[in-house]
Amino acid sequence: MSLGVAEHPDGGLQPVPAASNVRRQSHPLVRFLVTRIVGGVGTLLVASVLIFLATNALPGNVAEIVLGKYATPARINSLDRELGLDASLASRYGSWLSGIAHGDLGKSAVAVAEDSPKKSVTGAIGTALRNSLFLGGITAVLLLPLSLLWGTIAGTRAGRPVDYGLSYSSLIVGSLPEFVLGTFLVAVLFTLLKLLPPLALIPPGGKPWTRPSALVLPVLTLLGVSLAFSARQVRAGLVNVLREDYVTMARLDGLPERRVILRYALRNALAPSVQAFGQTLQYLFGGIIVVEALFAYPGIGNLLVQATNNRDVTEVQAIALVLAAIYIAINIVSDLIVVAIVPKLRTGMS
After folding, report:
1. How do the domains of the chain map onto residue ranges?
2. Sequential DSSP letters for 60-118
3. DSSP-assigned letter for residue 254
4. Per the CATH hierarchy, to which homologous superfamily does domain 124-309 belong?
5. Residue 9: band (very low, low, confident or very high) from pLDDT cuts 50, 70, 90
6. Do the Cβ atoms of 15 and 5 come closer than 8 Å?
7. Which residues have a Cβ under 8 Å from the Cβ of 274 and sit 6 or more positions away?
8. What is the value of pTM for the model shown?
9. What are 44-78's pLDDT values in tens digits?
């Protein structure tokens, strides 16, 4: 590194880094983010290969299955050419990857077979993804404060009846599969109490936020299966931090218990809790497929089920890749938040 000189306050000269080198030095968080994004892109490329090979390893001719009783040899050949199924596997993957880079996820095999004007997979996924992100976003916004509240109450009362009650109830609810919990909620809130609609019916092209009552049961189901894990992680982290010497010293100094919990204990317990919350969000987007199918919610999970039933390989590939990208993005964001709130990790990067 080239050095310059600067006058010291005592009258001497001391070397200083050249201005060009100072400009080149990036913030540790920026370097960490760039590294994680590059790694995420590499992971997504590997995932795209696996997704493409898995969907194309399914037995049967896609064009013949999609056309059904109208599958004449001429129509099968025509559909194969339009979908690019007559090319080699490597060529098809290259075309698919090139289209993704330009924002084109391909053509729906079902739409092409039915000669529908809406053949683009991108358009179909865009609306469904918007609906799923809205449903998942509402759940996440409610999940974070509830996890912190539930875990803090249980952690500050560890070993007491309140702790046992919260821990066991969350364990029981969290161990239920989504379709079991969703069916139970429908039985209670619709069949018994007549409070909520059993299905999240939204008109084609409609926006889910215009029908809030249709979102309650899907959100409650997702919250029920997601809250248990994240709340237990907050509780476990808080219990460990409360045993540290600096927490004991803060209490001996006469600080109010609420300030000790919020300023000293909870803040230091947040790092593992953030990672747990990220894992919960990943699990949430996995469970959203079951929940959307259960409540007929027009999201990306429901679209994936329909595409799988129709053997629409292009849609299945695109949806699986979008879900993989969401998983990777959640990982990157949660890791970045952990590094941002833990000074020791930032120090290790410099």
Report:
1. 124-309
2. S-HHHHHHGGG--HHHHHHHHHHHTTTS-HHHHHHHHHHHHHTT---B-HHHHHTT-S-
3. T
4. MetI-like (1.10.3720.10)
5. very low
6. yes
7. 334, 337, 338, 341
8. 0.76
9. 999 999 998 888 877 666 777 777 777 778 887 88
